[in-house]
Design brief:
This protein is an alpha+beta fold. The chain is 40% helix and 17% strand. It has a two-stranded antiparallel ribbon. The longest helix is centred in the first third of the chain and has 25 residues. The protein starts with 18 loop residues before the first helix and ends in a 10-residue tail after the last helix.
Length: 110
């Protein structure tokens, strides 16, 4: 289990990440890990010291996250020209595809 909270200005205590931060982290980590696994399986290259950074913007009407920017660092210095393949594969991770192909959502409150 883990703690999820809101920022103080939304009534939270900031005792943990908020849902938007978790969403952004899920995207960045999914893309990075998908690329890392591809490099290992396809090219037998064990990537090291890979860092992922993500930023996002909020949209209005309806309120939502409207843009994500993910930067994955320390790839080119290890993969060279194979970096394009890494990027192409990373964009196809499960979380990325979930955003691109709208899933069916269900909510049950008990």
């Amino acid at each position: 289990s883990f703690v999820v909270d809101l920022k103080e200005n939304f009534g939270g205590e900031e005792s943990g990440p908020n849902p938007s931060e978790l969403t952004a982290a899920a995207l960045a980590s999914c893309e990075a890990l998908t690329g890392i696994v591809w490099a290992a399986r396809r090219h037998m290259i064990e990537l090291r010291d890979i860092e992922a950074e993500v930023s996002w913007e909020y949209g209005e009407k309806p309120e939502r996250i409207s843009k994500f920017d993910v930067i994955i660092r320390n790839v080119y210095c290890q993969l060279g020209e194979k970096t394009k393949g890494f990027a192409a594969i990373a964009k196809g991770c499960t979380v990325s595809r979930t955003f691109k192909i709208q899933p069916e959502l269900s909510l049950k409150v008990e």
